[in-house]
Amino acid sequence: MDTGSTLDETAHTVTRTVRVAASRDLVFEVLTQPSQIAQWFGQRADFPDGVHAGAHGTFGWVDHGDFPVRIDRYDAPTAFAFTWGTPGEPIREDNSTTATFTLEKDGEETQLTVVESGFDTLGAAAGRRAAMEDNARGWTEELDELVAHVDGLERGTGLAPIADVESGRITRSVLVRAPQQTTWDVLTDPVAIEQWWGHPARFPGGLREGAEGTFEWTGHGLMPMRVERFDAPAVLELLWGELGEETPGDDASLVQFRLSPVGPDRTLVTVVEHGFTHLDDAGRRAAMEENVTGWTNVLNALVTYAERADA
Q1: Whole-prediction pTM value?
Q2: Cβ(177)–Cβ(265) under 8 Å?
Q3: Tens digit of pLDDT for each residue in 58-68?
Q4: Of 17, 49, 171, 206, which sits with the fewest C-beta atoms within 10 Å of its C-beta?
């Protein structure tokens, strides 16, 4: 089943169901993790304490602002629900609705249904009707983007990086057909890094939290690195300094890798690079465009190397 959004004016709900040609584990990850959400639902998803029942955060659109969000349900990989309100206001009954997602396994595919409720508390009937129509269009567009996002992941290297110039953030995800531990080893072993990155990586004491080292841009010099977080086999964060610096300075980028298992033999890898905000608009755009190309090439090479390592 794959239908457009439907409105029920008696129940005051908007409903849509889509079929996704991917496992339920992968669809749930794309549906619920901030770095994934930001690639199909607006441009930003920020949850400082992570995503779990009771967590608070925001979903952001360049043209509409940041919407406050409360996670109401997080039952991996079958159900997810959040309540979201109005930008600039705390969540209240009269300014919020609740979106509830269910994921049903159907062979190798997943049936994903969203039901958004709570429109009956939004005020006058005309306003409720307008809100339902607007959100019905929204779920048609956004879930189409989710399906396309998952399809791109299933193609291996089909997703282009997403650059949010306003916030200075680049995001890209790839699906590696290798177990999480194998992928982690390839990501964090300096010998392997040189093979898939294409440039030498040196960390004299090995990669660990607080360790310092360098990536060499062959023919140009060294870039200092400091490991900010090392949670094997799931999270690696690097503070990445400028070419020629001794240590990462105030303008360093924070590069975050997140590895999530998708079943026993696949891994979803997402990189998020934060930085560039010290540059003027033209310089920021140029630097981010250059790094978009870089992350395309580098993560494609990581996929190839990790899958060969697991062969």
Answers
A1: 0.88
A2: yes
A3: 999 988 999 99
A4: 49
